[in-house]
Amino acid sequence: MYAVVVKTEDSSDCDSAASSAACDQQQDMGYKPPTPTRKQRRNKSAIWKYFTTCDDDATKVVCNICKRVVSRGKDLGHLTTSTMHNHMHYKHRNVAAFSSTQGCRKLQPTPTPPASLPFAPLVLENLQPEAPEQPSHPMIQTITESVGEMICADLLPYSFVENKGFCKLMNLVAPHYTLPTGIHFSSKVVPQLHQRVKAKVQENLENMEGNIVHCTADLWTRNFSTSSYLSLTGHWFVENLSGGVAAAHKRVSALLNIKVIDTDYKPAEIFEHLQGLVEEWQSMIPCRFSVGYFVTNNSCNMVKAMSDSGFQHLRCMAHSLHLIVAGAIEECHGVVNVINTARQITNTVHTSDKAIAKLHEIQERLGLTVAALIHDVPTRWNTVLFMLQRLLEQKRALIAMSTEMDLGGSVSEYQWTLMEAVVKVLEPFEEATHTVCQDDSSISSVIPCIQALRAALTELRANKDVSDLLEIQQLVGLLQSHLEEHFQHVFETPTNTYFKATLLDPRFKIMPMALLSKLDFGRLKSAVAVEVEELLEQDSKPLGGEASSPSRTVLESEGTSKKPTSLFWGAMQSVTANNAASLVTSSGLVETYLAENSTQSLTSDPVISYWSAKMAQCPALARVAIKYLTCPPTSVSCERLLGTGEDAVAPDYRLLPVHVPQLVFTKYNLMKFQ
């Protein structure tokens, strides 16, 4: 009788060779081996391509990919490959060849797309059945990267790629593509995408003009959270060169970093974090990254942190306007009562499906715009204005609706009149807020906006329709006093940053002369000339070359009269009237610039429309101007990072804090630097 040698799952390579030799010898002698049992057939599982049995312990195997030891059980007679399959599924699911070895364990079936779908042939043509066997296939890489971009763009949790609905969709549009796990996206795809985007930002910073980066910073804390988010954005000017000739100039802004910190922070800790974020970029771009100005909100922690930091600090104008309007309204009790009534009506309608349906029905019957009422948000003063504007717009519908159901409050005719007057008073502040929050706005618009608000409030006080209402008289007076209080520091020093920026903005360059004495205006011009002289000494290149003299250039900009007429913009046009004829021309660059009769639209970007063209003629003066005009007047760019509304970081409600910085950085900069 011949002994039968059977190979078990945990047999070594030597045992396999001996077993094979024995079988060959038996077959030569006419012996027919018995049909392999189920246990014997399991030896041929393809999973063994990725594992090797441990020499010292037959119950354990080693992964050939990550070298991790995996247990197969404790009983030698009941070993299993389930843990091996699970290890491959959760740790190496991105291995293309593994998709063909899973058999019944394959979690993602690959149904054939219906022939009726117009896109199915295109997908199948680009991604052939053999593609999954090639991880480097261009189409596979493109799909994986696109999914990673989607995770960042929508701030999705990494587990999203394992959701049944998304897996079903991917199986339909790309049936031969094996979707990696969330771990693969969090550990490889998104970090690689983040590094590529960061490299793009760094490349752009290396080409910036003047080596000056203006920064804005802000802090948010989610409700019921122990984590806060500290963000840092940068703003600079880039001159793109093509063949040695200036081809294009543009402003650039980017999120430089966002950091998770503990909610129990102090001003000194805020400064340390900000300094660390800045130094990280300075180490990446040595001798090229110099912080110009730091713009933050008016919170005590931020102001204190900046005062101790040594950075040149500017306060966010949008936040200052919020404090001015919110403070004035709070002190005017008659206006507060009207706003509370409006808020009650809005909340009542919003919390009832029946009320919403009724409102829409009446709006259609009366021929009004079908629109929902607007809630006000405590952190955005202008939402109060929007709420009142919508109520006035739907006044007829709300009056008709109040006869059929309870709206939570009633508005008298006097309150409607008071509401209209409040809207008239607040509209100039909304237009000022909108102006300084534009992407191309700069600190040169701070003084003109303050002057326009002063003029608008003075005109409102003289308006009989407004001044007859005691509540409005009080509101206008409070707004005037708060305006002077919050912006007193802007006018204290004639040679400060705000006056320099205003002087170097061709739209507003005459305004400092009207606001300052002749002596102070001379000091301001001298201070700008000193900065120009310093750059001239550093610059070894000639100034002009073949460029024409800019002595009397007239620059026309489109859209000078396109801005809708309003109280604010009427006041703005009045305070920025061009009186260039009264200036005395001198040979200096600053005097030459001031003597130009340049007509610029109030809504134009002076960096692009004016100073970009001056880079070839007077580069030193242009660089000084760009230094000031690329600094934003607000920290709104930081506030927009994670959305607006009651909770500035609402989109991350499904994300762990540790994932937020990387995803938000990629989301914010991905489209800017593609």
Overview features:
single chain; 674 residues; alpha/beta; 6 domains; 5-stranded mixed sheet; 3-stranded antiparallel sheet; 8 strands; 9% strand; disordered N terminus; Zinc finger BED domain-containing protein 4
Structure, described:
With 674 residues, this protein is of the alpha/beta class. It has six domains: 1-40, no CATH class; 45-92, no CATH class; 105-180, no CATH class; 193-316 and 635-670; 317-492, no CATH class; 496-634, no CATH class. The protein has 27 helices and eight strands. A hairpin with a 5-residue loop joins strand 4 (212-221) and strand 5. Helix 5 (138-153) packs across helix 7. It starts with 12 loop residues before the first helix and ends with a helix. Residues 1-32, 38-42, 99-133, 242-247, 540-561, 578-587 and 644-653 have low confidence and may be disordered.
What's this, in brief?
With 674 residues, the chain is α/β, with parallel strands linked by helices.
Helix-strand layout with pairing:
Layout: H1 13-28, H2 38-41, E1 51-53, E2 60-63, E3 69-71, H3 82-91, H4 120-126, H5 138-153, H6 164-173, H7 182-206, E4 212-221, E5 227-242, E6 245-262, H8 267-284, E7 290-296, H9 300-307, E8 313-315, H10 317-331, H11 333-350, H12 353-366, H13 382-393, H14 395-402, H15 413-436, H16 446-462, H17 464-467, H18 470-486, H19 497-503, H20 511-515, H21 518-538, H22 567-575, H23 589-595, H24 606-614, H25 619-629, H26 636-639, H27 660-670
Parallel strand pairs: 4-7, 7-8
Antiparallel strand pairs: 1-2, 2-3, 4-5, 5-6
